[in-house]
Design a protein that fits this description.
This protein has 359 residues and is an alpha/beta fold. The chain contains ten helices and 15 strands. Helix 3 runs parallel beside helix 10, helix 5 runs parallel beside helix 8 and helix 8 runs parallel beside helix 9. The radius of gyration is 21 Å and the shape is globular.
Length: 359
């Protein structure tokens, strides 16, 4: 009887939480929420029933790249993995599928705005590191974020994905939403109540679909062609890299990022900084394919250093845009290669390519 009473209390609490989520769903994305997890992006069960036309919730509002113009954000490091600033456009050689391309736009990052999504795993596996993650994330935004110029959103995920803070240029709102984040509550299996799993790849896909390319992002970026391509879009993942319940695959998440020019950075962290629990292969692949880098801290000090390195990298990026010489609208994947003329031993880090527009 006691067990049944506990289940009933849980069901009543869950129902109340769902009603609160529905009530808050129509709030503007930039409004600060009074509590976390009030705005789910989509549930796994909804995806199971979705048709192909329903997969992208905001398809009519999604930001589309110009038919011809392709943008690439990149960083350059030397043999000692130190970032290389100060390069000029004439030093950049750009190839698409091996064919040289003419660069139409080139800019160092100093004046280039950013749209950032911080995506935090709040599943049970992050129980003992979430507090340190929150402190480091808040410090990160205070270091790199420029109010009035940059925009950011805070997303949490476990089995489902939740919008903790929509895109905003208000640093206080970001800090407040980070402080409100809490981990998933895990119930004992012998009580019939279990953890909801972890949907990493689905969270990446949804965050790009509905935040980094959603209606608010469209308003932020505006309609001017050059302005749109002078925007950097990045996602920072805080997770152990494990995925147990996604309806999306790793490849689908990578392809979605490359279609939108979103760079993924990951901080792979296991509970109590246990490195063996981290899926390093998956996180490294997500970052390698999209032009970011993966970090694997093994202490709180390492965690802060990882954020510091991301700050440094975001402050040393270059942006270029070009119109491909291949005008075919065949939906094919086009490989991108960037090289530096006249200097040996440099490595260019960028997304591996993009998908051409289909007919």
């Amino acid at each position: 009887m006691m067990r049944n009473l506990m289940k009933l209390n849980y069901i009543l609490s869950l129902t109340a939480a769902m009603l609160m989520a529905v009530a808050g769903a129509d709030r503007p994305a930039t409004a600060a929420s009074n509590q976390q997890d009030t705005r789910p992006l989509r549930s796994r069960t909804d995806d199971k029933r979705a048709t192909q036309q329903d997969v992208i919730k905001e398809s009519d509002e999604t930001l589309r790249l110009d038919v011809d113009l392709v943008d690439v954000v990149f960083t350059v490091v030397d043999r000692n993995n130190r970032l290389v600033p100060g390069l000029k456009q004439e030093q950049i050689e750009l190839l698409e599928n091996g064919a040289p391309q003419e660069i139409d736009y080139f800019e160092q990052n100093t004046n280039v705005p950013m749209i950032i999504a911080l995506v935090i795993d709040v599943s049970g596996s992050q129980e003992f590191v979430l507090s340190q993650e929150k402190d480091a994330a808040e410090s990160f935004f205070r270091s790199v974020f420029r109010e009035g110029k940059d925009y950011a959103a805070i997303v949490t995920f476990r089995g489902d994905t939740y919008l903790a803070q929509g895109l905003t240029s208000d640093l206080k709102r970001l800090a407040d939403s980070i402080r409100r984040i809490r981990r998933e509550r895990i119930f004992r299996a012998d009580e019939g109540l279990q953890s909801s799993g972890t949907s990493l790849y689905e969270s990446i896909y949804l965050t790009i679909d509905e935040i980094l390319e959603g209606k608010t992002a469209r308003r932020v970026i505006g309609s001017d062609e050059v302005k749109r391509h002078a925007i950097r879009r990045a996602m920072i993942l805080l997770t152990d890299g494990q995925d147990t319940t996604s309806q999306r695959s790793e490849k689908e998440a990578i392809d979605r990022a490359n279609r939108s020019g979103v760079i993924i950075y990951s901080i792979g962290i296991g509970d109590n900084f246990r490195f063996g629990e981290v899926n390093t292969r998956a996180l490294e692949e997500l970052c390698r394919q999209t032009g970011g880098r993966a970090y694997f801290p093994q202490s709180e000090s390492d965690l802060r250093k990882a954020f510091d390195q991301i700050v440094e990298e975001l402050s040393s990026q270059y942006v270029l845009a070009y119109r491909p010489s291949n005008k075919a609208q065949d939906g094919s994947f086009r490989n991108i290669d960037i090289r530096i003329r006249g200097v040996d031993g440099l490595q260019v880090i960028h997304r591996k390519g993009y998908f051409a527009r289909g007919r």
